[in-house]
From TrEMBL:
GO molecular function, one term: lipid binding
Gene name as annotated: Acot12_1
Identification of the protein by name: ACO12 thioesterase
GO cellular component terms, semicolon-separated: cytoplasm
Stretches assigned to the START domain: 16-166
Length: 197
């Protein structure tokens, strides 16, 4: 478990530092970036939020609150509190047209910065848990690497960056979006800002 949580944080940090991000959209307080590498597409959503970084961290690290701003989260329950900083959740997503609803078993690792210039980190990856085998009513999907980095911008505002490395399991949600026919990423980001503020 210690290795899993370390690799969870390390994978997100590595993804955030990769060179070659292309900006695809700029709005008032949202920027959307993409990064392609072989068959893996990653995206980053950068949001300017008018709350202190520690408040954003506290709200974003509790995934039970996620459905309040992210409509891709239908339900979310804690399966196991591994430690103060690690929790395993079971998440269900609403069905897409012609598909069964999806579910995910995820490890969420949260870290406060060790030094002032470092971000708060909330890293997410799928894990297998014997207690929750795949169920016939859901299509079990996988998150390779996702999460938030929250950078402080003074005492009352911060920059929240959301990252997701997209696999074919998440693709139906994003395919329409990245071609520009849907605004789901933007809408979710706007809802996230509204929720945090």
């Amino acid at each position: 478990q210690a290795y899993l949580s370390y690799s969870n944080i390390a994978a997100l940090t590595h993804l955030a530092r990769k060179p070659g991000w292309d900006i695809t959209k700029t709005l008032d307080n949202i920027k959307i970036w993409t990064h392609e590498e072989g068959a893996v597409l990653s995206f980053k959503v950068e949001m300017q939020v008018k709350v202190p970084s520690h408040v954003a961290f506290s709200l974003l690290s509790d995934f039970r609150l996620r459905h309040r701003w992210d409509r891709h989260f239908l339900t979310c329950e804690v399966l196991q509190a591994v430690s103060e900083e690690e929790k395993i959740y079971h998440v269900t997503s609403p069905p897409m047209t012609g598909h069964k609803p999806r579910d995910f078993v995820i490890l969420v690792s949260q870290r406060q910065p060790c030094r002032p210039q470092e971000p708060y980190t909330v890293a997410v990856r799928s894990v297998a848990l014997r207690a929750v085998p795949p169920s016939p009513e859901f299509c079990r999907s996988e998150i390779l690497c996702a999460g938030f980095q929250i950078h402080s911008r003074g005492s009352s505002s911060c920059t929240v960056c959301y990252f997701n490395q997209v696999t074919s399991g998440v693709m139906p949600y994003l395919a329409a979006n990245l071609t520009g026919s849907s605004k789901s990423i933007e809408d979710t980001a706007l809802e996230c800002i509204k929720f945090l503020e």
